[in-house]
Amino acid sequence: MTKPTRTRSQAAEAAEDRGSNGSANPTFGDIVAARFDRRDLLRGLLGVGAIAAVVTPRALAAGAAQAAEAPDTRFPFAEIEAGSDAHHHVAAGHDAEILIRWGDPVLPGAPAFDPRNQTAAAQSRQFGYNNDFVGYFPMPGAADPASHGLLVVNHEYTNEELMFPGLGRQDVKAVAFKGMTRELVDIEMAAHGGSVVEIRRQDGKWAVVPDSRYARRLTATTPMVLTGPAAGTDRVRTAADPGGRAVLGTINNCAGGTTPWGTWLTCEENINYYFSGASAEGSPEAANHKRFNLPASAYAWGRFHERFDVSKEPNEPNRFGWVVEIDPFDPTSTPKKRTALGRFKHEGAAGIVARGGQYVIYQGDDERFDYVYKFVTAGRADSGDRDLLDSGTLHVARFDADGRGTWMPLVFGQGPLTPGNGFHGQADVVIGARLAADRLGATKMDRPEDVEANPKTGKVYVMLTNNGKRKADQVDAANPRADNRFGHIVELTPDDGDHAAPGFTWEILVRCGDPSVAAVGATFSSATTANGWFGMPDNCSVDGLGRLWVATDGNAPSRTGRNDGIWAVETEGPGRGTGKHFFRVPDGAEMCGPYFTPDDTTFFVAVQHPGEADEEDPKAVPATFEAPATRWPDFDPAMPPRPAVLTITRRGGGRVGT
Ligand code: FEO
Ligand code: CA
Ligand code: CA
Ligand code: CA
After folding, report:
1. For strand 644-650 and strand 602-608, is the pairing parallel, antiparallel, or unpaired?
2. What is the pTM of this model?
3. What are the start-end ranges of the H helices in 451-591?
4. Per-domain residue ranges for the chain?
């Protein structure tokens, strides 16, 4: 979700701007950022002062000519031009085709999409809104596992102004949700969650298999269960669920992961947006709500569904903010909220098997000044235990100025996680993971988004999207720029190549932004063209060759002279730190998804919220159903823009991006 531009309400914006981390954890304010990598020294980038808030769009073609000669590249595709228009663009020699759009049928009997007469019943059978994470599971026994499988897709949030005719933006003070009805709220709830669709490639073209027995829609009302340390405890009990185990729905499903045992991990991120009402003075949950910027009152759900009103149901927020595990091959299975992995604004949950066989899931908590986590299972990934994610150790990262780092365990009774500090069991530790991490002195990061390990090299990449609120006296070695508008990527190397190890070394792969504007302090390689740099890294994917692909959220014509998209980023050799532009989204959209088939012949990407206005452009006209920034992908005057998943394939076959 594009928080700086797509903030759900003025109230939420004020809350988000502060971040919610009031802890005194070190940002090494008293330590001059002691550690810069060798490339920084070579480029004379030390001592860069204030960062320009906005990069003036520049003549891209002219800049391209200035780039140094590219070293041998592992990304031999022809780079696309950075820029913005109503369409999507992909590197030459590739096809990018629409696979499924908001409103397309998922479940048998789904009615044809009619956005002027939408109903909650129809939406609950159709593809939801704002596709984010995309995962692919080869169909067991398929002749070609890369041509037949299940696609799982998150539906993160809804844009009422683009979804509903005649409504406009509802989450602004002057409107205060006046136009929202129970039916509209119920449509929103049905447009959240996720979809499972069976897909097949025939004659080179992917299509959804209609009426598949695997098809599933998950929404904000789908029955789910809590498992792990918080399940059944007092703080997750509500009037509707006195047992504290049965939850309705999943919301704000951002990124995620797929496990080696064939399940889908979908991550609940900005859950605070959905809650309204006042948190009662002196309520035992008051500090917990505050640390989660909750309630942010960015939706009207609490007016029609009491559980989203914290004055009536203060424990309901404790039932969201989790990683949810789903068996995509069994549409009757009950999704499990795995509380052992902690409760925070989960971006993603990409994992890798450790040397000892444990499964290690890296996780970002997407808030300014929040943390990077990892969960290490107690058992082995190949144990056959379907509840492997209920037992293990959650850790939070501390990045030291000398390039070392430590994973600190969040375990009740260890260190400061004691009753004296408000932790009475592991349930309190996981429900209040942020508060527990504060106590351990975790490093406050610049909005951690996706974190993914590269199985080829063992290195781990952390996308830090931006943090315009970091002050000069709050910089540290791992977050070295004040007013970090463009974000950066940190590379971790686990000690002994073991992802379960408690220690690691780290360095910054690249500081993002326009490297030709000295004040920005960007550190892309000199081989990076004027098209090849980007800001605001968000999601990422590592392909079968171990190449890193980065999706962005927050580039826009008024800010960076370019729309969001996919950039390939070289991590090895002399070209390390080179960005190369591969795909670009239409106006108003952010780039989500990226996920490869096991053989890299198909790259799935998700275009989220196409048609939004460039909200950082004061001259931009507010986007609405009637007047969107683009009508992608249908370009039908009767049809609003529709978030959609695309398949990118190489013309004539072969690995994408070669
Ligand atoms: Fe849903 Fe952090 O983006
Ligand atoms: Ca983002
Ligand atoms: Ca995102
Ligand atoms: Ca990812």
Report:
1. antiparallel
2. 0.92
3. 557-560
4. 4-650
